[in-house]
Specification:
This protein has one domain. Helix content is 31%, strand content 22%. It is built from nine helices and ten strands. It has helices at 8-20, 31-52, 77-88, 98-110, 112-125, 207-211, 217-227, 236-246, 254-264; strands at 137-148, 155-156, 160-167, 175-181, 184-189, 271-277, 283-291, 296-302, 309-316, 328-340. Strands 1, 2, 3, 4, 5, 6, 7, 8, 9 and 10 form a ten-stranded antiparallel sheet that branches. The longest helix is centred in the first third of the chain and has 22 residues, at 31-52. The protein is globular. This is CU044_5270 family protein.
Length: 356
């Protein structure tokens, strides 16, 4: 049942349970995954309360596909400058640090991961720019699988079909689009706390908003370090890497997509792997990063021929209180992307053009 139709007491119960929902003991989920699990719990709460409440008109409960990240607070100019300095790796010395910075950039560009990301960047830059109107919707079809951590243990669910239609309107919205999961169509509501609606941004990346981002990799990375929401105890580099990952796989302007891959190449700890598969088992080239503190690996999977983004996967690399090493946390497989005129209506021909 939607919050809009819930009685005040029921709304208070949901808010209280959401506030008290414990985080995993050893690892703070990326915000998108945490919201997915919280929404799942809220859905069960709605159903339990609906069974005991007086019957009344209702609508389908809300569950998000690829939950949208909450917009970050605007950082100060000083924080932005610090982020820029941190990402360029400049170290002040007697000669102004230029030689050290140049040497570090050269070393970064020689890493296998950086070389692959630059090839991916070059490939996506050749894609055509789409014409997307504000009254249209970005359509995505994918396969997803993930672990539910609300019990304190990782319970890996089945592979699911997901379709989503995300509004491209720039202004704050209370209804962001639609999602169809397991044959059930539901609205995507604004993020919890966005009482005036969720605007276009990191939490709701529209095509035009993505096109407005800096296309210089250093400036883009500085922006992401400044804007990416902080997670307690989480490595900042890992948070930004996962933020970039959340922007991949959809309809992304070619220049922005190219800059995102070049920016990712500059993040410390990013590596390459040849043993990666997406949620439906398609093998590909991998860009990976390990969160060594919590023992979690995040992988991006790319087609070995055309470098298109196939999907992503994250799993435990060491035993934790909620799962053994190797336990899957999330995986996706991108199947189709298109621009459509109406939410809930599939495109006449599924089109991957413009996929990052």
């Amino acid at each position: 049942m939607n919050d809009r139709h819930a009685c005040p007491q029921r709304h208070d119960d949901r808010e209280e349970i959401a506030r008290l929902l414990p985080a995993p003991a050893d690892w703070d989920l990326p915000r998108a995954q945490h919201l997915r699990h919280k929404d799942l719990l809220m859905r069960h709460i709605d159903r339990d309360q609906a069974e005991t409440a007086t019957p009344e008109p209702s609508t389908a409960p809300v569950r998000r596909a690829r939950p949208l990240l909450r917009p970050a607070l605007v950082a100060s100019a000083a924080a932005l400058a610090l982020a820029a300095a941190g990402t360029t790796g400049a170290v002040l010395s007697g000669n102004g640090g230029h030689d050290d910075a140049a040497a570090q950039h050269a070393a970064t560009d020689m890493r296998p991961a950086a070389a692959l990301l630059h090839r991916i960047s070059d490939a996506v830059a050749d894609h055509g720019t789409l014409t997307v109107r504000d009254d249209q919707f970005a359509y995505t079809r994918e396969k997803v699988r993930g672990a539910d951590l609300t019990s304190g243990k990782a319970v890996v669910g089945p592979l699911e079909d997901y379709e989503s239609w995300v509004s491209q309107k720039p202004g704050p919205l209370h209804t962001l689009g639609l999602v169809r999961a397991d044959g059930e169509t539901m609205p995507i509501n604004a993020e919890l706390g966005d009482t005036k609606g969720t605007p276009a941004g990191l939490g709701r990346p529209t095509y035009h908003w993505l096109a407005s981002l800096p296309t210089d990799p250093d400036k883009l990375l500085a922006y992401l370090y400044a804007k990416t929401p902080a997670a307690e105890g989480r490595e900042r580099d890992q948070a930004v890497f996962e933020q970039i990952g959340s922007l991949l796989g959809g309809l992304t302007p070619p220049r922005t997509a190219a800059a995102l891959y070049q920016a990712a190449a500059k993040i410390p700890g990013v590596d390459r792997s040849s043993r990666v598969r997406d949620a439906i088992g398609r093998p590909g080239l991998g860009i990976v990063r390990d969160d060594t503190r919590y023992g979690v690996r995040t992988e991006w999977v790319f087609d070995a021929k055309d470098y298109s983004f196939l999907g992503s996967r994250s799993y435990l690399t060491k035993d934790a209180s909620y799962g053994k090493a190797g336990t899957l946390l999330s995986s996706t497989a991108e199947l189709a992307h298109a621009v459509v005129d109406k939410a809930g209506v599939r495109p006449a021909a599924e089109d991957r053009t413009g996929t990052a």
